[in-house]
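User: I'm curious whether this sequence folds into something compact or stays loose and floppy. Could you predict its structure so I can see for myself?
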Amino acid sequence: MTRSSFLYALWCMGVLGLYLAAASQGYSPFADGGRTAGAARAYGPTHK
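Assistant: Here's the prediction. I'll summarize afterward.
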């Protein structure tokens, strides 16, 4: 494995890790408001 392919694999794992962390926390860069409920309760958009 060359150095560039190793760095590319490391970068891909970093992006995947950030994606999984954002998915587990319910983070969205496009949401207007933050999470309003805890992880135990269901939550959704607050606008009508």
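Summary: The chain has one domain: 3-41. Residues 3-41 form one domain.
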